[in-house]
């Protein structure tokens, strides 16, 4: 079974079909609050309600319980890609653990304006991409990793180019 909770998937499919909480509730003869509780994983729908919801959303119960080939996450990634961010970068180290974990996808919005205490994607003079917090002091700008096993880097415009801000992440869950 997937690590994604059923409520998150229910909300995804409801929104994909264009239903508001109230509209779906009306269609399956339950309250809007019931839909809210299901989507927040506060309650689990009974079998009869689950089947009515699935029928209205044109899905099977397996679509809620199993994550076949990350279909939901791929569609979410595509939607984010079209609307919000400029780049996506796969994390290859643990320098920003636990904020960004290895193999997660960082979502980057192009923005070269330095903002204090924000995660940025930066290209160094060797064309390496790094993600670090930028911390301004009176005389310097430091690039600080979340994981203190990695070194702090002094930012300078000659050797570093700001690509953009990290605005989110996508996590892929194991298939089981």
TrEMBL record:
InterPro entries: Cro/C1-type_HTH, Lambda_DNA-bd_dom_sf, LexA-like, LexA/Signal_pep-like_sf, Peptidase_S24_S26A/B/C
This protein's record includes keyword DNA-binding: yes
Entry superkingdom: Bacteria
Keyword list, A-Z: DNA-binding
GO MF annotations, alphabetized: DNA binding
HTH cro/C1-type domain ranges (all copies): 10-64
Coiled coil ranges: none
Protein name as catalogued: DNA-binding XRE family transcriptional regulator
Organism for this UniProt entry: Oceanotoga teriensis
